[in-house]
Design a protein that fits this description.
Number of helices: 10
Strand content: 15-25%
Order of helices and strands: HEEEHEHEHEHHHHEHEH
Strand order of the largest sheet: 1-2-4-3-5-6-7-8
Radius of gyration: 18 Å
Helix content: 25-40%
Oligomer: single chain
Number of strands: 8
Structural class: alpha/beta
Largest sheet: 8 strands, mixed
């Protein structure tokens, strides 16, 4: 099986950053492994064990350790299972699944069942939200309710919209200069201030050491999306170059009559949630 890492030293670098970021959270946690037909899957169990269980999916080419810092507002309110997406940087099996079919959804449905649940509330952002969309199509009965933040797989922008990230990425590979790396991220961040040090460290580590997933989970057919009939909150960003609100939200409302939608005004794919928006997510998931 081909590794998702460039070499053994690269794998070591990714996992060392993973462990450092997890420890830096300063929270009690437990490592869990479950077996699926796609391969072994690692999860971090944390949060309040007496609260409602919640399955959390991280973004593409990022890690659960980084994502937990971004989603730390969920920790006091839920018993969290934060999953390492299979085939991505982290501690799950190095099995790359197709973004075109529903394999990610079948995998996630198996994870939920292997954890001992018939269904779980779920939260995902970006690529992770796309994995969750695939789950809502492939195994809708396993998702009790869901929050999709800047999600893929509903109405992705044309790939040409992200072409302005390609040249800076090529220049970064050639020169390894910081300025080109920042320019690569800027179309997603909209403003420099949205590129935090944590984002830089995590993204650079993945790009330098792992074979990145450049293709996001692709749009599902209307008939497939309609299989999901439980509550769903879709939050899309106005200036998102990958999954723009003006495309994502109307389609979400069309396919899910039970859907709540919210636009992150003035923001791009990389963004910070307001306290009010964090409270909205928590209350919806409860």
């Amino acid at each position: 099986m081909s590794s998702i890492y460039r070499n053994e030293n690269a794998k070591k670098a990714v996992l060392e950053l993973y462990d450092r970021q997890l420890e830096a959270l300063g929270i009690p946690f437990k490592d869990i492994y479950v077996e699926t037909s796609f391969g072994s899957t690692h999860l971090i169990e944390c949060g309040d064990m007496d609260k409602k269980p919640l399955l959390v999916f991280h973004g593409g080419n990022a890690t659960t350790a980084y994502n937990l810092k971004y989603c730390d507002f969920l920790l006091p309110h839920f018993h969290i299972y934060a999953v390492d997406t299979i085939g991505h940087p982290g501690k799950s099996a190095e099995v790359s699944l197709s973004p075109y079919n529903q394999d990610y959804g079948k995998w996630a449905g198996e994870v939920i069942r292997q954890l001992g649940y018939e269904k779980l509330a779920c939260f995902g952002g970006s690529f992770g939200a796309g994995v969750l969309v695939k789950t809502m199509c492939a195994a809708p009965e396993t998702v009790e309710r869901s929050v999709l933040l800047v999600p893929s797989a509903i109405k992705n922008a044309l790939s040409i919209k992200s072409i302005n990230m390609m040249f800076p990425m090529i220049m970064y590979y050639i020169t390894h200069k910081e300025k080109w790396f920042r320019k690569c991220l800027l179309p997603m961040a909209v403003e420099e201030k949205n590129i935090s040090e944590d984002i830089l460290i995590t993204a650079r580590c993945s790009i330098d050491n792992a074979k990145i997933k450049s293709i996001m989970p692709q749009d599902e057919k209307e008939s497939e999306l309609k299989k999901y009939r439980s509550p769903v909150l879709v939050m899309a960003a106005e200036k998102d170059c990958l999954f723009p609100a003006h495309k994502v939200l109307p389609r979400a409302r069309k396919v899910w009559k039970q859907c709540d939608t919210y636009m992150l005004e003035g923001r791009g794919h990389m963004n910070e949630l307001t306290e009010k928006e964090k409270e909205m997510i928590v209350e919806f998931l409860k």
